[in-house]
Amino acid sequence: MLKVGVLGAGHLGKIHLRLLNESNKYELVGFYDPDEINAKKVAEEFGYSYFENINALMDAVDVVDIVTPTLSHFDCAKKAIEKGKHIFIEKPITNTAEEAEELLQMAKKHNIKGQVGHVERFNPAFLSVKDKIETPMFIETHRLAEFNPRGTDVPVVLDLMIHDIDAILSVVNSEVKKINASGVSVISKSPDIANARIEFENGCVANLTSSRISLKNMRKSRFFQRDAYISVDFLEKKVEVVKMKDAPKSPGDFDMILQNAEGEKKQIYFENPEIEANNAILDELETFAEAINNNTEPVVTLEQGTKALQVALQIIESFKN
User: N or C terminus of the chain with fewer C-beta within 10 Å?
Assistant: First the structure.
């Protein structure tokens, strides 16, 4: 089993600690948190080993799980890489694109594997239809959340929208051509509501909306492509797949048939992919262990995490124009 240590024992850090402790792919060595009062409380309550020194923890493990505030991601990851440790790092990968690029180069130099915690890639609803999303030409996403002070130290784009940015980049096989966006600060000092339009070189257009001051939670994405419409509800873990094919010459009484202006007839039919329940956070952590053990590419690479961050920062920059 891989020896793992966790940096950060906040809300998400405690979830990681619990899951790593339960996993049969890792041996949880302990954790480090600069907040000594919180750290000792977590150690007492759950029995995890608390390291008072970050270097001591890193020296005792094979993998460093970084679940700290975004501003400290780079320093923590750099220190781990220099010690030859594989890194799992929560999203966004770093605070700046320059930091992410430096981590990429360091990881290659030290032959280190890294994975970024874009957990929606492991959402069972998304997994059930990902292979059915083929060359989408229009994508619409809504990620709305009720207000929570946690996370408001960064713009809503880095807090919420980046989940959808990463998911979109994973299914659109094309480079970004143009970005237009607007953001509004309502409660926080950084934007709480944002809308972005991303145009890709292949003609695909993605329209993304995120808010952290909504009255209800929503995490939905819709993908439109030739002869298909695919809807993914990340929150409710439901999918809807509507497809079209050439209509049979003798349709049945209950067949849904559409005819276009040219007289072509199409039959509408529905698919119901099987959604297998899972723990997405546990899956992302355990697939990373498999990538290390089998020397394969992690599901969400440092390169992909960097691309998602670069697009997110372009959106934020677009607010100023």
Answer: C
